[in-house]
Amino acid sequence: MNGLEIESGAYSTAFDDGSTSLSGGQRFSALSNKITSILSTSYVDTEIREAFRTLDERHVQNTPEARRRLRIDAQKEVIDCNGNIVRDFGKVAD
Predict the structure, then answer these.
(1) Which helix (H) or strand (E) is 25 found in, with range?
(2) Whose CB among 9, 11, 39, 42 lies 3.0–4.6 Å from 24's, allowing a Cys bridge?
Protein backbone atom coordinates (compact mmCIF):
# COMPACT_ATOMS: atom_id res chain seq x y z
CA MET A 1 0.00 0.00 0.00
CA ASN A 2 2.72 2.51 -0.98
CA GLY A 3 4.70 2.07 2.25
CA LEU A 4 1.73 2.76 4.51
CA GLU A 5 0.05 -0.09 6.29
CA ILE A 6 -3.07 0.31 8.40
CA GLU A 7 -4.42 -2.46 10.60
CA SER A 8 -8.15 -2.24 11.10
CA GLY A 9 -9.34 -2.77 14.65
CA ALA A 10 -5.98 -2.07 16.29
CA TYR A 11 -5.79 1.52 15.04
CA SER A 12 -2.07 1.17 14.47
CA THR A 13 -0.25 2.71 11.52
CA ALA A 14 3.11 1.45 10.26
CA PHE A 15 5.37 3.65 8.13
CA ASP A 16 8.27 2.88 5.78
CA ASP A 17 10.83 3.75 8.45
CA GLY A 18 9.42 1.11 10.81
CA SER A 19 7.84 3.60 13.17
CA THR A 20 4.23 3.26 14.24
CA SER A 21 1.70 5.81 15.34
CA LEU A 22 -0.26 5.69 18.57
CA SER A 23 -3.28 3.45 18.88
CA GLY A 24 -6.75 5.05 18.83
CA GLY A 25 -7.03 5.06 22.62
CA GLN A 26 -3.55 6.46 23.13
CA ARG A 27 -4.13 9.10 20.47
CA PHE A 28 -7.40 10.16 22.14
CA SER A 29 -5.69 10.30 25.54
CA ALA A 30 -2.80 12.39 24.19
CA LEU A 31 -5.23 14.74 22.46
CA SER A 32 -7.36 14.96 25.59
CA ASN A 33 -4.30 15.79 27.70
CA LYS A 34 -3.22 18.48 25.23
CA ILE A 35 -6.69 20.05 25.16
CA THR A 36 -6.86 20.02 28.96
CA SER A 37 -3.44 21.66 29.15
CA ILE A 38 -4.42 24.40 26.69
CA LEU A 39 -7.77 25.08 28.35
CA SER A 40 -6.20 25.25 31.81
CA THR A 41 -3.67 27.88 30.70
CA SER A 42 -4.33 31.33 32.08
CA TYR A 43 -4.21 33.83 29.24
CA VAL A 44 -4.40 36.64 31.80
CA ASP A 45 -0.74 35.90 32.53
CA THR A 46 1.35 38.68 30.99
CA GLU A 47 4.09 36.27 29.91
CA ILE A 48 1.61 34.16 27.90
CA ARG A 49 0.14 37.27 26.27
CA GLU A 50 3.63 38.55 25.46
CA ALA A 51 4.53 35.17 23.92
CA PHE A 52 1.42 35.28 21.71
CA ARG A 53 2.19 38.87 20.75
CA THR A 54 5.76 37.90 19.79
CA LEU A 55 4.52 34.97 17.70
CA ASP A 56 2.05 37.25 15.99
CA GLU A 57 4.73 39.85 15.24
CA ARG A 58 7.00 37.18 13.75
CA HIS A 59 4.13 35.88 11.55
CA VAL A 60 4.84 32.29 12.60
CA GLN A 61 2.93 29.61 10.70
CA ASN A 62 2.01 26.37 12.46
CA THR A 63 4.14 23.99 10.39
CA PRO A 64 6.76 21.50 11.57
CA GLU A 65 9.54 23.50 9.92
CA ALA A 66 8.31 26.78 11.47
CA ARG A 67 8.14 25.17 14.92
CA ARG A 68 11.68 23.80 14.54
CA ARG A 69 12.93 27.19 13.37
CA LEU A 70 11.15 28.93 16.27
CA ARG A 71 12.71 26.53 18.78
CA ILE A 72 16.17 27.00 17.24
CA ASP A 73 15.77 30.79 17.25
CA ALA A 74 14.63 30.78 20.89
CA GLN A 75 17.56 28.57 21.91
CA LYS A 76 19.97 30.86 20.06
CA GLU A 77 18.53 33.91 21.85
CA VAL A 78 18.99 32.20 25.23
CA ILE A 79 22.56 31.18 24.37
CA ASP A 80 23.39 34.72 23.19
CA CYS A 81 21.88 36.21 26.35
CA ASN A 82 23.83 33.79 28.56
CA GLY A 83 27.00 34.63 26.63
CA ASN A 84 26.43 38.33 27.31
CA ILE A 85 25.99 37.62 31.03
CA VAL A 86 29.20 35.56 31.16
CA ARG A 87 31.08 38.30 29.29
CA ASP A 88 29.77 40.94 31.72
CA PHE A 89 30.80 38.83 34.72
CA GLY A 90 34.22 38.45 33.11
CA LYS A 91 34.55 42.24 32.96
CA VAL A 92 33.62 42.50 36.65
CA ALA A 93 36.18 39.84 37.55
CA ASP A 94 38.93 41.77 35.75
Answers:
(1) helix 24-39
(2) 11
